Amino acid sequence: MSLNGQVALVTGASRGIGRAIALRLAAQGAAVVVTATSLEGAQNTAGEIAAAGGKSLAVKVDVSQVAEVENLFKEALAAFGKIDILVNNAGITKDGLLLRMKESDWDQVLDVNLKGAFNCIKEAAKVMTKARYGRIVNVSSVVGEMGNPGQANYCASKAGLIGLTKSVAKELARRNVTVNAVTPGFIETDMTAELGDKAREALQDQIPMGRLGSGDDIAAAVLFLVSDGAGYITGHVLSVNGGMYM
Ligand code: NAD
Known about the structure:
Elements: E1 7-10, H1 16-27, E2 31-36, H2 39-51, E3 56-60, H3 66-80, E4 85-88, H4 103-131, E5 134-139, H5 142-146, H6 152-172, E6 177-184, H7 190-193, H8 197-205, H9 215-226, E7 237-240
Parallel strand pairs: 1-2, 1-4, 2-3, 4-5, 5-6, 6-7
The protein binds nicotinamide-adenine-dinucleotide.
Nicotinamide-adenine-dinucleotide is lined by residues 11-18, 36-37, 41, 61-64, 89-92, 112, 116, 139, 141, 184, 186-187, 189-192.
């Protein structure tokens, strides 16, 4: 699965799943544009890639802001001249039961998780349709498929990403641009680190494989979807959840 000569842009790659994806794509030979809300965070991952002999560029961006995303793509194109792969991984949670959920909690989560992906896809599509090549992967979630109490905003954003994936897959297919989603189950990252022992045990009980997943589990699925071998797969939602939801 060589990605030599290809350029990938991964959002939210300072830590967790995004970092694992960025490192994995770089290890296969891609130059990687690493983005995060903190420049230092993005630089850390970019530094790891450079230390391993790869090419990378760190950019601070809030994906919910159109002007920042436009600027991100300008910088990426100035540095590497093209973008073959886009991974929309940036995401946040603002959990709470519906009756207590503030309008701002709803808006922020939808703005980052769903509108952020829309903003990046729009910029990437301009480049990819011209090049008649592209691979887009959206990081959704198992709870976007099954729902979860206390996460109405997050689940709506992640379910929305699946609709976005399938619609854009149909629009871009003729230009040889594939658009797929991965739906991680519960993965060991900062996002799930706040869980207490009891909540963690309850979660593990729901997972047939009996363990939380790792960032590398997700990165391997993303690598497959951006590889040559997945060239005839588009609009697909790939579950990586240890059997939690089938
Ligand atoms: P994390 O909190 O560890 O990392 C999130 C990343 O997103 C960070 O790099 C952060 O800088 C970036 N980010 C946050 N807001 C941003 C914004 N406005 N603009 C740009 N970047 C922004 O999260 P994680 O657990 O690694 O999750 C990564 C993705 O996987 C998210 O989309 C999340 O919803 C999804 N996911 C995670 C799990 C899990 O169990 N951890 C499960 C399913 C799906």
